[in-house]
Fold each of these.
Amino acid sequence: ETGVTQTPRHLVMGMTNKKSLKCEQHLGHNAMYWYKQSAKKPLELMFVYSLEERVENNSVPSRFSPECPNSSHLFLHLHTLQPEDSALYLCASSLQRAGVDTIYFGEGSWLTVV
Amino acid sequence: GQNIDQPTEMTATEGAIVQINCTYQTSGFNGLFWYQQHAGEAPTFLSYNVLDGLEEKGRFSSFLSRSKGYSYLLLKELQMKDSASYLCAVPDSNYQLIWGAGTKLIIKP
């Protein structure tokens, strides 16, 4: 079993749909992250949770809503998305805050908004 | 502000050596990371440099010069499976990782 698992791996949704991405880490880490990866662009940090508290929110539109019920699980709730939100969404975790510790990524959820 | 530059794409031949450069500008310095990402897969950790010099790890080595704001990843004895994107990242003053756009490495037989 991989350290960070994400579901679903692929998701196609309409602009009026509501869906959620799920992430689970089995590494005993204290920090979890959501990143957005678009083609030929740097990874964009969306949200950071440390010990289940949100510590970063990088000006992400409110149509993305994170939830961290415990240190092992992280969700990204999606509603009324736009086609430009189509991207690879990567979950990651680290023992402490990234930049201090190595971060470990899940395999990502490919999101297509139609 | 913070900025990271790395070439968009490189091509090399199986069995050869390739050097992928990364230049960065950051207000503080807390190390530099290299990650490998195969198409459709998660980025995976390759190396972390915080002191100047070369660190070797098998076929892969990573070099850092803090005074020049420069790092490179050296891949030796290239194999087809090394075809991937290579991402450079540095933490900013808030320990938030700033990422380069990645270098896509294409290995030809």
Amino acid sequence: GDSVTQMEGPVTLSEEAFLTINCTYTATGYPSLFWYVQYPGEGLQLLLKATKADDKGSNKGFEATYRKETTSFHLEKGSVQVSDSAVYFCALSTTNFGNEKLTFGTGTRLTIIP
Amino acid sequence: DTAVSQTPKYLVTQMGNDKSIKCEQNLGHDTMYWYKQDSKKFLKIMFSYNNKELIINETVPNRFSPKSPDKAHLNLHINSLELGDSAVYFCASSHRPRSRGEAFFGQGTRLTVV
């Protein structure tokens, strides 16, 4: 079945450090890929997405490129801020007999220290 | 305007009780979901409804019964609550096929069974 594997956390970085959170996936067909972010005490928010191979999703300084050859969608940011502290989820969406389903990774908790 | 709203935000109840969580979306979406997030932040889909019709039921105990009175509402009723039901429950919505799997999430309902 479909699955998403992402880097185990927690990840702790200093402000202005470079961030990479790895994500790889297994899916039949051609999934769409997403990064969602969950700030403390809140629901999930879409951070960025890519719907086909070689697409790059970007938002708020975060980027991820859909790599079909390596089945990866790694999240990167050049200079993190304290306000980026949150849990990040990689996810894929597949359509089976017309029904869409989001499958999430286990989440990576990111803490940025000043 | 809250796009996807859930009530209550917190729910503490005793084992064996029956409780309901309500969800409403004002986005005009045709598909709604319930997800369960455990203490380790792992997110798993429970149900999906499209135009009030049950589409996905992911091996959830039949103590859990979703009800969709209309496209904008998807409620979750839980009978005979057990300690293992303690989790955060998220409602979400999307619009097939336009959204390409992107879902909008509510703030979550933290259920604690004592």
Amino acid sequence: GAGVSQSPRYKVAKRGQDVALRCDPISGHVSLFWYQQALGQGPEFLTYFQNEAQLDKSGLPSDRFFAERPEGSVSTLKIQRTQQEDSAVYLCASSYGRLFTDTQYFGPGTRLTVL
Amino acid sequence: AQSVTQPDIHITVSEGASLELRCNYSYGATPYLFWYVQSPGQGLQLLLKYFSGDTLVQGIKGFEAEFKRSQSSFNLRKPSVHWSDAAEYFCAVGARAGGFKTIFGAGTRLFVKA
């Protein structure tokens, strides 16, 4: 079946622009995670949704970052007034259940470059 | 606070040789432990995970890992490496006590030579 998809795969933004990154999780998956992966680093947790509820947003680096999942399926990560330090690959993952121990399935990521 | 250390930035092994990738974690109790692999152009894929019980965990693609509480380690092993194993490997730790945050190490890049 279809895995986690993300769009766009690549995004170039000028500093100060707003961007929106989309994640389509595996159908029926309750849990959805966003991560930020800087070049040469491991992924860093940003936020977690259980259905439409955002239960953990402790990893969002600033109030310029906002995520939503209004209908409990597709999720959007929005970054306002992008800065060069926002350049990274943004990964989305979904898992079937509510347990933290459920396997997370990752999408291919969106590579954001801020000029 | 939780943390994960992967001491080796990159490792080169010959095809057919054995492999061990090191991972050390810092956490106040027994954490959830994971190994992921990331190939170029591919998403992260879970290789194996440890939650409790037998400290030797078998995963996909012939990988295994051993949890050693006394050493705070969770090293990944494979007896015979294939060229297709060349990739970036990430060790990760998750908290048991609430929250949904998984902490990843910086990764170890594996090169396989013929």
